[in-house]
């Protein structure tokens, strides 16, 4: 997909975590993917962001998940090896 839409234009959204499953959707920052028909309403505020390098993803996620499950998580990556993880944890868990 990155060859078609550009790595920096892709967004990965993790959502609907349960004990054994999670859902993952891929979207674009700009534009639309033909024949896609999935939408998810996301909160406007309350997100936390962290940035780092893709070769440190295990450590980044260890830190993010130390406080428990998330409601939503958006990943972005670039060709230079950096990443940004934005996540939302419900206060009602």
Largest beta-sheet characterization:
5 strands, antiparallel
Query: How many H/I helices?
Result: 2
Domain module count: 1
Helix content: 10-25%
Structural class: alpha+beta
- DSSP, total strands: 5
Low-pLDDT residue intervals, each spanning 5 or more residues: none
Describe the structure.
There is one protein chain. With 93 residues, the protein is of the alpha+beta class. It has one domain (2-88). 14% of the residues lie in helices and 33% in strands. It is built from two helices and five strands. The chain has helices spanning 2-5, 57-65, and strands spanning 10-15, 23-28, 48-53, 72-77, 82-88. The chain has a five-stranded antiparallel beta sheet with strand order 2-1-4-5-3, with helices on one face. Strand 1 and strand 2 form a beta hairpin. The longest helix has 9 residues, at 57-65. The chain is globular, with a radius of gyration of 14 Å. The mean pLDDT is 88.
Q: How would you concisely characterize the structure shown here?
A:
By secondary structure, the protein is α+β, with helices and mostly antiparallel strands. It is built from two helices and five strands; from the N terminus they run αβββαββ. The chain is globular.
Label this structure with key terms.
alpha+beta; 5-stranded antiparallel beta sheet; about 90 residues; 2 helices; about 15% helix; single chain; globular
Which secondary structure elements does this structure contain, and how are they paired or packed?
Elements: H1 2-5, E1 10-15, E2 23-28, E3 48-53, H2 57-65, E4 72-77, E5 82-88
Antiparallel strand pairs: 1-2, 1-4, 3-5, 4-5
């Amino acid at each position: 997909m990155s060859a078609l839409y550009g790595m920096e234009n892709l967004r990965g959204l993790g959502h609907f975590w349960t004990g054994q499953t999670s859902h993952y959707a891929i979207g674009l920052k700009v534009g639309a993917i033909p024949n896609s028909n999935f939408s998810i309403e996301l909160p406007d505020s309350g997100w936390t962001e962290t940035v780092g390098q893709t070769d440190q993803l295990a450590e980044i996620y260890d830190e993010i998940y130390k406080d428990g499950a998330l409601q939503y998580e958006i990943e972005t990556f670039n060709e230079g090896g950096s990443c940004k993880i934005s996540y939302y944890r419900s206060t009602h868990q």
